[in-house]
């Protein structure tokens, strides 16, 4: 058995144990449950308290995860999403390595089967028509547009994506959003209304590009996930 | 296993202190204030620091400001927008003294840095359109209603508005609904402000220079509300 011994002989014998002081002598603080955070609490014996972070914010919107790429990256994964909220909202600012533009795609719970339905409409800069496409049995959900490496420098696509009733275990998951890119010479406005045909609660979101091909997001792409509380 | 020197070291003397290492020796981290939580922070000597949930006040979606008109005018401006958020959202409710489309001026830029692409249903038809190389603002396609009690509405989202390395994208949903009038529309717009400058001011203005209706109209008026969203960890 491997143990650590500090000055007064305190034993940190369990995984995650912390050494602290209760005001009189050194004490042990046992680790909290998965997902809990350690907060300062002058009323607890140790002065420390493990608590669930969602109780700390009283906001209707809660920032629950964030990723920013620092190198070319194929996929972004938000995992261990708790069922604490009514809906989720994802804000994306992305640019890919290749082409003038790419699609931003999503999978839930690592599901790669043909369980995604896509309906979208869009218009191109310079065009005069509104167009639409649909797929009933896709292996991913098409959730927006980004620019690519051939686009104007510093040009990124953006999207606001909403995932409704994500924690339900009785309904398929509706997802909609608005997205687009614009570099003056090329541009696209894109709205989608889609569905993941599963009654499983969403616990992970994987974001990729170009149908989860070998396409990558460049450094500086950002992905911010929010939870929307119900009353 | 710790060395004998480490065994003899006990820097914990006050309630709530935590034992950690600065890379060369064991040190005590002083307790935070009530409610703060411990986060990894490579720039601090201990590699740890106490932080407040969701930034100041623990609020991730915050009201920032209101711009409203008490007299007819051709524009409303949000200035001195702080860079402490990740995304901005504007909710705009407007009525024109004349029929007008909307422009979005950012940072008072007057060069050809604005472009937009949009789609809309207007009456019974649908159409796509775009306007590039504009110097006076992003053309948003939203129409203003001009009749009493009839207001157009728009929601604008700015993701990563505070970035200093990206051109700024604006996404909008616009509506001016009345079933018997030709300027009744519902539309979507993706605009760009082709600058890497952080957005510090936004002006909502009419395309043709006419006025928004600013006189009290059944206790309502042209008004815009600005909100900020903080990302996780900010």
Features:
heterodimer; A: 231 residues; mainly beta; 2 domains; 8-stranded antiparallel beta sheet; disordered N terminus; B: 234 residues; Jelly Rolls; 4-stranded antiparallel beta sheet; 1 helix; 45% strand; elongated
Could you please describe the fold and organization of this structure?
The complex is a heterodimer of chains A (231) and B (234). Chain A is mostly beta strands. Chain A contains no helices and 18 strands. In chain A, the strands form five sheets. An eight-stranded antiparallel sheet of chain A has the order 7-18-9-14-15-16-11-12, with no helix packed on it. In chain A, strands 8-17-10-13 form a four-stranded antiparallel sheet, with no helix packed on it. In chain A, strands 1-2 form a two-stranded antiparallel ribbon. Helices cover 2% and strands 45% of the residues of chain B. Chain B is built from one helix and 16 strands. Chain B has an eight-stranded antiparallel sheet, with no helix packed on it. The interface between A and B is large, with 76 and 72 residues.
Averaged pLDDT of chain B, please? Answer: 84
CATH class of the largest domain in chain A: Mainly Beta
As a whole number of angstroms, the C-alpha radius of gyration of chain A is 22 Å
Mean pLDDT score of chain A, rounded?
89
Low-confidence stretches of chain B: none
Termini separation of chain B: 38 Å
Question: C-alpha Rg of chain B, in Å?
Answer: 25 Å
CATH topology of the largest domain in chain A: Jelly Rolls
